[in-house]
């Protein structure tokens, strides 16, 4: 088993799915992939850094918190440059930062449409573009974008969110085609209904409606997503690119 030390950047790593991804990557030595450093980027990263470090205590991975708004390309470039400097390079990028601002289109403001597109889709462009040079130069990269099942099937009340996630899926496939020759794989995960702050906003009726359409009859946990992210960054997934993997308890099939 070869032990290559990999270095990762995770956006939106302070809580929810992103936090589980940071923990899973840090704690799991995944057949040959030994993580050495992880940078997590969030607009409230500094607040969460100490807690996260405590939770990961015991793994040999260095964790660095970077406070940045993922919607700004200038910030993303500066953050990636600083992360590369700190870690000595970057091998893995997880584009996870995301928000919802739900409303029926009739009531959706132009500001809420723009904000959701900027956080969920533009950030993926920002960070992918910023890591390209180092990844292309070393002829190795693993990029995983967190999309959503609604980007595949649509959802009333979420035109901004669905458009952003469908955009992420299209972006993923295009990057897989552009970057394959440099041994950079780009895949998307489409989570279903996962228990985080984001889904706490749903009322009981919405919750019951969602659960009734899930064959496994439960909400997913952030760790259910983090495990698939780790797999896609492991050598077992070296020949997988351009795929959208639904992790949704069977909700979409
Ligand atoms: P969450 O709300 O718990 O966490 C989102 C994280 O992104 C937070 O740490 C937040 O501070 C960060 N963030 C938000 N805006 C940011 C910005 N401008 N710059 C930097 N960081 C920012 O949400 P959750 O559920 O963990 O979501 C993670 C990803 O998974 C999102 O892309 C979301 O769309 C996606 N997803 C979640 C599902 C769910 O059921 N929870 C279902 C499908 C997809």
Report on the structure:
- By secondary structure, the protein is α/β, with parallel strands linked by helices.
- It is built from 9 helices and 7 strands, in the order βαβαβαβαβααβαααβ.
- A 7-stranded parallel beta sheet has the order 3-2-1-4-5-6-7, sandwiched between helices.
- β2, α2 and β3 form a beta-alpha-beta unit.
- It is globular, with a radius of gyration of 17 Å.
- The model has no long low-confidence stretch (mean pLDDT 94).
- The protein binds 1,4-dihydronicotinamide adenine dinucleotide.
- 1,4-dihydronicotinamide adenine dinucleotide binds next to α1, α4 and α7.
Q: Which descriptors apply to this entry?
A:
253 residues, alpha/beta, 7-stranded parallel beta sheet, 9 helices, globular, binds 1,4-dihydronicotinamide adenine dinucleotide
């Amino acid at each position: 088993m070869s032990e290559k030390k990999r270095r990762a950047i995770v956006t939106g790593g302070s809580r929810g799915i992103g936090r589980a991804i940071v923990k899973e990557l840090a704690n799991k030595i995944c057949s040959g992939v030994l993580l050495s450093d992880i940078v997590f980027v969030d607009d409230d990263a500094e607040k969460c850094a100490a807690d996260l470090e405590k939770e990961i205590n015991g793994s040999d991975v260095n964790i660095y918190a970077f406070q940045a708004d993922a919607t700004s390309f200038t910030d993303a470039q500066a953050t990636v440059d600083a992360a590369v400097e700190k870690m000595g390079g970057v091998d893995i990028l997880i584009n996870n930062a995301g928000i919802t601002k739900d409303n029926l289109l009739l009531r959706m403001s132009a500001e809420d449409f723009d904000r959701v597109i900027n956080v969920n889709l533009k950030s993926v462009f920002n960070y992918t573009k910023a890591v390209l040079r180092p990844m292309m130069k070393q002829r190795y990269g693993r990029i995983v974008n967190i999309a959503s099942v609604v980007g595949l099937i649509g959802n009333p009340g979420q035109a901004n969110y669905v458009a952003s996630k469908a955009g992420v899926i299209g972006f993923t496939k295009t990057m897989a085609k552009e970057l394959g020759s440099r041994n950079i794989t780009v895949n998307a995960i489409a989570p279903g209904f996962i228990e985080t702050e984001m889904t706490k906003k749903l009322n009981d009726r919405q919750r019951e409606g969602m659960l009734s359409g899930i064959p496994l009859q439960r909400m997913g946990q952030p760790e259910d997503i983090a495990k698939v992210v780790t797999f896609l960054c492991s050598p077992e997934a070296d020949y997988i690119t351009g795929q959208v993997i639904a992790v949704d308890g069977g909700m979409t099939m």
